[in-house]
Amino acid sequence: NIPSEDIDALMAQFNAYYATHALVFSSFSFKITGVLNGYLTGGLSNADYVAFAAKCAADGKKLTCEFNIHPGAFDKGKVAFTFDDVALSVHDIGIPLFTSKGIVGTVYPNTAFIDAMMSYGELGCGWEELSNFITAGWTVGSHGSQHVNFLGLTEAQMITNIENANTAFVNAGLATPTHFSYPYGGYNATSTALMPTYFDSARVVDPNYMVGESSDPFIYPVVTLDAMTMDDLPLIRKYIDHAETNKVGLLFLTHGLYAT
Q1: Helix H segments across 67-154?
Q2: Dist CA 93 CA 107 (whole Å)
Q3: Cα(240)–Cα(107) distance, rounded to whole angstroms?
Q4: How far apart are CA 26 and CA 47, in angstroms?
């Protein structure tokens, strides 16, 4: 939290870090908090932040920001491959592929998609496939019972969404999930306060951040792979190298796997 009149000091701190980590942050935005009515809220680019801070300073307003470039090191770097919804291709291709590499993944099925066709043309896994993930050592979390953005739900509706999914797991003979992934990544203060009642962690879709010991486990961010191609493998490798070198965590997100 740095007052807007200290913007030069803030940017010096950021630029010094960015100079040694530019390979990791292909894009970077500041999360603006505590801004008064009539002012912009949300993510801003470096240049946008400077202009916005200048406006606030000129108007005599205080501006605070948060950015987590030092999340606190683990004992070693950690990488997780996470899959939302979950498409049947993740089961058919993912289990043998990951097993051949000696690793496991994490899936977050939405129970509305069990054995159902999803909007992007993929068939969702059934309960048998989800059981196979568990047998293969994967983590099977929850993506809720209806694929709706939590930003549009009341607390009661959030609870219903979570508990209906948990009931479906139990009825299918599977353990109640202990990890959650927000549909569309939407979350707010109400949902984050609710999460510890049901889960050990919750994953969102906020981009391009690493996680560490000091990170909030109920707002875990990701690097999304859905739009990436084989040409992006060098960038993905740099993300992983950064996590290993700096002993921080990295969560990848995608929705399907393809033989090609």
Answers
A1: 88-89, 95-101, 127-135
A2: 13
A3: 20
A4: 15
pLDDT in tens, the chain (260 residues): 445 555 566 666 666 655 555 444 433 334 433 333 233 334 445 565 566 666 666 766 555 444 444 556 788 889 999 999 999 999 999 999 999 999 999 999 999 999 999 988 999 999 999 999 999 999 999 999 999 999 999 999 999 999 999 999 999 999 999 999 999 999 999 999 999 999 999 999 876 567 877 788 999 888 888 877 888 888 888 888 888 888 888 899 999 998 87
Asked whether the beta carbons of 126 and 115 are under 8 A apart, the reply is yes
Cβ count near 58 (within 10 Å): 9
pTM exceeds 0.90, yes or no: no
Ranges assigned E (strand) in the chain = 30-33, 42-44, 64-66, 78-85, 106-109, 139-140, 179-181, 201-207, 220-224, 249-254
Q: In this structure, what token pair is assigned to residue 32?
A: 């603006």
Radius of gyration of the chain (CA): 20
With beta carbons less than 8 A apart as the criterion, state whether 143 and 107 touch. Answer: no
**What's the CA gap between 211 and 223, in Å, rounded?**
11
Which single residue is written with the structure tokens 């946008």? Answer: 48
